[in-house]
Amino acid sequence: MPDIAISTDHLTRRFGKFTAVDGISFEIPYGSIFGFLGANGAGKSTTIRMLCGILAPTSGEGKVGGFDVQTQPEQIKTVIGYVSQRFSLYADLNVAENLNFYGRIYGLEGSALAGRIKEVLTLTGLAPFQRRLAGDLSGGMKQKLAVANAILHKPKIIFLDEPTAGLDPLSRRGIWELLYQLAESGTSLFVTTHYMEEAERCNTIAFISQGRILKIGRPAELKEELKGQILEVAARPLMKASHVFSEVEGVHGVTVYGTTLNLNAADPKAVEERVRQAAAREGIQVASIKPIAASLEDVFSDLDLKKVKNAQH
After folding, report:
1. How far apart (Å, rounded) are the C-alpha atoms in residues 280 and 196?
2. pLDDT band at 164 (very low <50, low <70, confident <90, very high)
3. pTM summary value
4. Is residue 246 part of a domain?
5. What span, in angstroms and rounded, lies between the C-alpha atoms of 196 and 123?
6. Domain of 281: which CATH number?
7. Helix, strand or coil, per DSSP, at residue 108
């Protein structure tokens, strides 16, 4: 088996004059978790559809499990698993019946199917709930069942399109523990997410915006590469402060982070003084200003700001 599970080279998809995915290139090795981050409409789902052999690229190249996305889409479908944003389960079938149904779709039968169902029930922690109707499961257990269905045929590549959207923190943690187990077994996971804290869990992440990849790298490396010092500012009113401080000289970006602001400052001491002066002029209360480590939210904000500035020139 080759080391690379997924590779793309200037992969592009156009719909008429609109370019949904614009020349993206990356490689994903087996046994890794690849996070694909971007806003709605950035091109994430279109990319997945091409890599799953559902949508033909307009140009460029791509291989999934050794198969070509242009010429071998049907072969790709036999070696991948897919977990969608929406629950693709039969609510009136119980957990075991759902697995039995999907297993037969994958061509599993008899003792092989029964043995594999037992394995995935144990792996996902769903064994105690195998007689429960899918429609009666909690959100977290429904998503675990969706993952269980996707891995029945032992695919070495799994696409997960926002697998934890709408789940509570405990359920999200459970899903990620399951994903780690799959990666440790050599499975490659392609995960889209809106949650920056989940992106921290990935081996490699790519930021995509308007069909183009802005940056690819390991989370820690991307944060280290961010120029400037992040200042955490506790101020009220928060959104007014965000607007005012974004215009302060030396501030390269402002991110709202909970109840505080993260300011990317070229010269922290000078920026702190200017921020306090601007706050005094505009009637903004500043409770504290302190330097902190950069987050992926700060990285994405910086990349997005650079993209906007480049587009204006």
Report:
1. 33
2. confident
3. 0.86
4. yes
5. 26
6. 3.30.70.100
7. coil
